[in-house]
Amino acid sequence: MENVKIVATDLDGTFFDSQRQVNQEKFAYILTRFDEQNRHMVIATGNDKPRVDSFFEPFVGRFDYVINNGAQVFTREQTLLNMFHFNHAQLRFLTKYLDAKDYQWRIGVIYNGVNDSYMLKAQQNQGDLYEDSLWYFPNLKHIQTIDEIPDNETIIKLTFALPLADVQSLMREMTTNYSDKFHITTSGYGSVDIMPAGANKASGLEVLLNHYQVTASQLMTFGDGLNDLEMLNLAKYPYVMPNGDEFLLNSFPHAHANNDHDGVLDTIINTLQL
């Protein structure tokens, strides 16, 4: 696998252990070896850039970004290469569409923007996972209507959480009726992300592949959830975590260990003979 030039990994359930930690010593070793070998590490996640930078503060500048499930792509030098975003008409449509659903929200709809993230006051404190959402969005702003989102804000993703049965039915409905306008995906655990059509981790990685003038035959990817499916299909060397989604486990090779035992790091070290 000497030809591998880019390695991309999901975070939750993949790179992170159950405490949302990573073996920093091993990660630093891999990044140093990658620098020596002209390889690139990519964080490919549903999280936004401020959260990724806070997770990996000691390593900022040493990895590239495919974030918000592919809606934004940055180089390690912090250059924005690509961004999908909603227009106001799309936001109005999605707000009305989701508001009409009789869901038992686990986390209400968060409008994830470039500058800030927003939630309607009507959904504040709703759901058993609301407090968990504040870990990902510590500066979440609560608004009366989406008209209060500032004019200079750009919304790139809607994210929320539902019971699993509702996730499945919503994904079927939106994929059947609105796939030309929106891309809906899940990382599991009831979480749902909606982005503009064309935004996914694979399309984000293709931007980086073109930027660095390499091909998918030189790409290795790691994931555990269905929001990783496209990038696993894209790569010549895909790996699913042993703790991952059953469909993925039946479709792709497995990483050498699960996320609680440095599975991504050890697979990289072993397969690339670092």
Automatic annotation (TrEMBL):
Pfam families: Hydrolase_3. This is Cof-type HAD-IIB family hydrolase. PROSITE patterns: COF_2. NCBIfam families: Cof-subfamily, HAD-SF-IIB. InterPro entries: Cof, HAD-like_sf, HAD-SF_hydro_IIB, HAD_sf. The keyword Protease does not apply. GO terms for molecular function: magnesium ion binding; phosphatase activity. Keywords: Hydrolase. GO terms for cellular component: cytosol.
